[in-house]
Design goal:
The protein is an alpha/beta fold. It has a single domain, classed as Maf protein (Alpha-Beta Complex). The protein has 5 helices and 6 strands. The chain has a 6-stranded mixed beta sheet with strand order 2-1-3-4-5-6. The protein starts with a strand and ends with a helix.
Length: 196
């Protein structure tokens, strides 16, 4: 059965192919299906944005679709960057966005944060299912590490030994992250659907 991932992010596509191909899906990126749609993320939550992206692709294809939206929420910054994580304060680079978070926390005692990932799965009949994973931790005082991307160099997860996610092996993130938790819920749901 064909399944389209509402993304052209090569890393994300590869990850979904690894997970979903053994479950009987032929996984494609938007580009592989010649879908040149950029969905505007007008939702106020990760769940809403994931659903907007999935619905747009489903309406075009009537095919199984997965879309996700994720980001970092910092308590002392009133939940920012949140749904604007990928475009925080309009800054063009990941490094600048990380620096903006660190600057915002200057002098703050509370450095609690969490990553959130929401996945919307629409099956071939148009039935929607939402899965959300959360990964708690704290924000470091400086960037550290070269593994990962986004806010990984400043995020210390509750599962780590005080090192940032970017300082840990990639396999660590694949096991513990917010996306890993949401994907596990998705896979469990697909297994249940396939079991008579």
């Amino acid at each position: 059965m064909d399944l389209i991932v509402a993304s052209n992010n090569k890393g994300k596509i590869a990850e979904y192919k690894d997970i979903l191909t053994p479950l009987g899906f032929q996984v494609f990126s938007q580009a592989e299906k010649n879908i040149a749609v950029e969905v505007e993320e007008t939702g106020s939550t990760f769940e809403e944005n994931a659903a907007l992206k999935a619905r747009a692709i489903y309406e075009l294809t009537k095919c199984c679709v997965i879309a996700d939206d994720s980001g970092l929420m910092v308590e002392a910054l009133n939940g920012e960057p949140g749904i604007y994580s990928a475009r925080y304060k309009g800054l063009p680079t990941e490094h600048e966005r990380r620096m903006a978070v660190l600057e915002g926390l200057r002098g703050a005692d509370n450095r609690n944060a969490r990553f959130v990932s929401s996945i919307c799965f629409i099956d071939e009949n148009g039935v929607e299912r939402l899965f959300t994973g959360t990964w708690k931790g704290t924000i470091a005082f400086r960037e550290e590490g070269t593994n990962g991307f986004g806010y990984d160099p400043i995020f210390i997860s509750e599962d780590a030994d005080g090192r940032t996610t970017a300082s840990m092996p990639i396999s660590f993130k694949e096991q513990y992250s917010h996306r890993a938790k949401a994907v596990k819920q998705l896979v469990d749901a697909i297994h249940r659907l396939k079991t008579p």
